[in-house]
Write a structure and sequence with these properties.
Blueprint: H1 3-17, E1 19-24, H2 29-34, E2 37-39, H3 41-50, E3 55-59, H4 62-71, E4 76-78, H5 94-103, E5 108-112, H6 117-121, E6 125-127, H7 132-138, E7 143-147, H8 150-160, E8 163-166, H9 172-175, H10 179-188, E9 194-196, H11 202-207, E10 210-211, H12 214-223, E11 228-232, H13 236-244, E12 249-252, H14 267-276, H15 285-300
Parallel strand pairs: 1-2, 1-3, 3-4, 5-6, 5-7, 7-8, 9-10, 9-11, 11-12
Helix pairs in contact: 1-14, 3-4, 7-8, 12-13
Bound molecules: (~{Z})-2-methylbut-2-enedioic acid.
Length: 302
């Protein structure tokens, strides 16, 4: 089917079946363009919890669809490509986290939302890159376990001064954005400030002008007086930044910073998943109930 026809069919199926399409900021441009909402994990989680639709199509990686299902257990949550995984989330297993908790008894566990449902079930409170610092600061604890991103953990340590027992995970895409990429980008665009995502290496964050989550970058882009920005994150965000701020220019710090997992979803797969109402996400109730408590604490935290 032609792209135009696919888009029309998706619109028809959405109406007929009472479905909404949520897409993450790192999705391919054409998937973002057919979504009802494009956002970060926190925004999509909040929307999933409140959604009135019968079906939620979550165009993102697996843990995002799983999070939506945990928050909206009565909805049918489908993911266009169930093979779209998150290498960072896969670096922490529930069994390994239980072992770590046993090694450091009494410490609270703060988990980045980029984790499996099993890890969330062993977590006291989830966070995203948008609220990690504020959330850890709000806890009375001086020492916490932070899972799974070591770069975000080190940024939280720096900003809160707390003792952070960090998991040794990382996002391969952000990890590959190096100082030399920033220097090259800056040489090409000397007037442009650098905005870096906290999943980047500490030396990259130190050299950046601002450290921002994708949601924070979107907000900042709307109000900033600068006309061009170098963006150190997955390049999918540049589509949304440019579309919503046509008067500004956004350059990738590293043009190859592309998450192939995020790009496994396509317009055709969105169409097929809506048509067949699968693959549907299932999370066992015991895991979901415990994970929900940790995610709800994140959502309610303002
Ligand atoms: O929270 C998210 O959605 C991720 C993975 C990054 C960000 O900063 O939005």
């Amino acid at each position: 089917m032609e792209q135009d026809q696919l888009r029309k069919e998706i619109g028809r199926l959405k109406q007929e079946k009472g479905a909404v399409i949520f897409a993450h900021n790192y999705q391919p441009a054409e998937v973002q363009d057919i979504a009802d909402v494009v956002g970060d994990s926190l925004e999509l989680s909040r929307l999933a919890a409140e959604a009135e639709a019968r079906i939620i199509v979550l165009a993102g990686v697996y843990f995002m669809a799983e999070t939506a299902k945990i928050l909206a257990p009565d909805k049918k949550v489908i993911i266009p490509d169930p093979q779209a995984g998150c290498p960072l989330a896969d670096m922490a297993s529930r069994a390994d986290l239980i072992e770590m908790k046993n090694k450091f008894p009494g410490r609270k566990v703060v988990s980045y939302v980029n984790t499996t449902a099993g890890v969330k079930a062993e977590t006291d409170i989830c966070c995203t890159s948008a609220n990690a610092v504020k959330l850890v600061n709000s806890l009375p604890d001086e020492e916490i376990i932070f899972v799974p991103d070591r770069n975000l953990a080190s940024y939280v340590r720096l900003k809160t001064g707390k003792r952070i027992i960090a998991w040794n995970g990382y996002c391969p895409i952000h990890e590959e954005i190096r100082l030399e990429h920033l220097l090259t980008a800056r040489a090409s665009h000397p007037e442009a400030p650098i905005w870096a995502h906290p999943e980047c290496r500490p030396e990259v964050l130190e050299s950046a002008d601002r450290v921002l989550s994708t949601g924070q970058m979107m907000k900042e882009a709307r109000t900033t007086s600068v006309r061009e920005v170098i963006v150190a994150t997955e390049t999918g965000l540049l589509h949304r930044l440019s579309r919503e701020n046509p008067d500004k220019k956004f350059y990738p710090a590293r043009a190859e910073a592309i998450c192939q997992e995020m790009k496994k979803n396509s317009v055709e797969k969105v169409y097929l998943s809506l048509l067949e109402e699968k693959p549907e996400i299932e999370v066992d109730e015991e895991t979901a109930a415990r994970a929900r408590a940790a995610i709800n604490r994140m959502i309610q935290f303002v």
